[in-house]
Amino acid sequence: MKKWLLFCCTILLLAACGQKEVTAQHQGTKGTNAMNEQFIGKWEGSIETPNGPLPIIVDLQKDSGTLSVPAQGLSNFPFQSVTYTGDKVKVSINLNGSAIAINGTIKNEQIEATFQQNGGKYPLTLKAYKEQPVTYDTLKIPVQNGNLTVALQKASPSPSPVALIIAGSGPTDKDGNSALAGKNNSLKMLAEGLAQQGIATVRYDKRGLGDNQALLTKEEDGTFDQYVDDAVQIIQTLMADKAYTSVHVIGHSEGSLIGLLAAQQTGVESFVSIAGAGRPLDEVLLEQLKGQLAPKLFNESTNILTALKQGEQVKNISPELQALFRPSVQPFLISLLKYQPANELAKVKGRVLLLQGTTDLQVKEADAEALKKGKQEAKLLYLEGMNHVLKKAPADRAENLATYADPSLPLHEELLPAIQQFIKNEK
Asked: Do 251 and 276 contact (CB within 8 A), yes or no?
């Protein structure tokens, strides 16, 4: 899995799909075997793509069915056809001209299947869908181009501190899950854990993703500063609400830079950075790319980043680098490259806590040290064995990455206490 795709909304198998209506047709049971009734119902699983697991939900009914891809904002897209033959099922979907086929066999209460799209064929295992209880309230915050849907995790009926949790880069949703990395529920666990400790939280899908997909319909229209403006609007709304005794910001990964810039503009009481980059994006990205690209492509990446940092778009991009530097993502990169995180942190007036895991594969201790130099009075805490998705993980790359798609693993045991004590200003 290419974990250096940190910032861009990479176009995956199902990305950029509209909700075009398609009439589903049940084609009946063929052959001599009766249809297995165990098929009927909702199933969940992950397509094993080259970029990593992509979670999907399939709703199988006798005469119809739907496909959902939560990470990409696709909800209840209807099948074109579904055919059952004994213990086998065949699903056909026409997704805006892209032909999709799911062929599976039910065995031991799960469906072993393959997912086919545009010539690619990928393994898929579906298990019975478990409805996730909604433990939060939904709020609408006015922002540019509409309303931002956010999740409020209440702590108690009485006034309490509240923290805005800002997710990391790419298609990472409000729960910390990503179409690139998988489902780990890290930010969901963080929000629920803080609520149990008397700290309310607000988290949200960034514009163009999930609940807020409609706020950004064209990738080329997106800028990093829009993310900051959205965070500012949420913070100002929370500050005006008498239900909260104080307002704080928690930013994870790219969300750290968004959070500290929003904290500058709003004067929140405290800011917590978790795995935040302390160096400009071009430095971090080139460090990650150096061991993964051939010299020619690495030199091209260096030249592209140099141009983007000067505000100049680059027209000719090698096919191997399109995912990172395609023209439609360049306006976003230009708006992000102008920031030096350590310099910006120095402008934050509230208390600052820097948290860094020692087995983080993406953001290194050098970044935490750089942020600390930017604001000497900040408190820096290393969490031994914590990785980028806030779980305890070994340094071994394969074992570490396996935690990215395992929601059963708890958060690192020191993370919640550290944040709770800092926000409540406890010694």
From this structure: yes
Concatenating the DSSP letter of every residue in 272-298 gives EEES---S-HHHHHHHHHTTTS-HHHH
How far is it, in rounded angstroms, from Cα 48 to Cα 311?
37
| Residue 259 exposed, middle or buried by CB count within 10 Å (0-12, 13-18, 19+) | buried
Q: Which two tokens stand for residue 141?
A: 């915050």
pLDDT tens figures, 267-290: 999 999 999 999 998 998 898 888
Task: Answer whether 0.85 is exceeded by the pTM.
Answer: no
Rg (CA), the chain: 22
Q: What is the pLDDT of residues 176-202, one digit of tens each?
A: 998 777 789 999 999 999 999 999 999
Helix boundaries (H) for 167-223 = 186-196
Exposed, middle or buried: residue 101 (CB in 10 Å: 0-12, 13-18, 19+)?
Answer: middle
The conformation of residue 136, written as its DSSP 8-state character, comes to S
How far apart are alpha carbons 406 and 26 in whole angstroms? Answer: 35
Cα dihedral value 121, 123, 129, 131, nearest 10: -80
Within 13 Å of residue 296, how many CA atoms lie on the same side as its CB?
A: 4
**Cα–Cα nearest to 22, from 98, 88, 115, 103:** 98
- Listed in order, strand segments (DSSP E) in 61-117 are 65-69, 74-78, 81-85, 88-95, 98-107, 110-117
Q: CA geometry: angle at 108 spanning 106 and 114, to 5°?
A: 40
Find the Cα–Cα–Cα–Cα dihedral 167, 388, 405, 410, rounded to 10°: -90
Whole-angstrom distance, CA of residue 141 vs CA of residue 312: 34
β-bridge pairing 270-274 and 244-252: parallel
CB atoms within 10 A of CB 398: 8
* Closest to 227 in 3D by CA, of 169, 297, 154: 169
Nearest to 220 by CA among 144, 331, 326, 146: 331
Lookup: tokens for 273:
């950075």
Q: Is the CB of residue 309 less than 8 Å from the CB of residue 283?
A: no
Q: How many CB atoms lie within 10 A of CB 308?
A: 24
Residues 170, 264, 365, 338: is their CA dihedral positive or negative? positive
**Distances in Å between the alpha carbon of 393 and those of 207, 358, 389, 406, 417?**
31, 9, 9, 12, 19
Question: Percent of the chain beyond pLDDT 90?
Answer: 71
